[in-house]
């Protein structure tokens, strides 16, 4: 006599297989979370640094294009015209032309942007304002405009104005602060302050 065949096993996962899969996924997610968190924090620092660098370059380019002195400032205001107050650790930036001495002209608003959200823990440390002359070089100015903050020339060696971008709650060995430097001659660059500029570290800071 022929033995009856058993019914074929239904396709799919058993409850135990699903539980094991979920546990493995939970473990992998737990391992990946710190890495993702670090990546996100450093991406925000890089975005803030790029925004700051772009704003400085725009102010310099406008000084060259207009053949007119332009002041770049940090501020916590959201400027839409020339009414804003420069601030050392401001998280927004603004640029405007500088009124010529003994003339009736007024400052002209150029552009503004955001470096970091006001509520974020990213800090920007550097001068309130820097001024570019008509050939794109840094220039001193005791009065670049109402509430714009005075512009000074760097006295360090090499002569650089520097903006450090970091977290107020920085995690040592995890976060990667960045720095934007502006040389006396007008060269603007983004660098890693944890490295010294050399042939081995072209991304380092002077």
TrEMBL record:
TM spans (from-to): 12-36
Keyword Protease belongs to the record: no
Alphabetized InterPro entries for the sequence: N_methyl_site (IPR012902), Pilin-like (IPR045584)
PROSITE patterns: PROKAR_NTER_METHYL
Pfam families: N_methyl (PF07963)
Keyword field: Membrane, Transmembrane, Transmembrane helix
Name this protein carries in UniProt: Prepilin-type N-terminal cleavage/methylation domain-containing protein
Native organism: Variovorax ginsengisoli
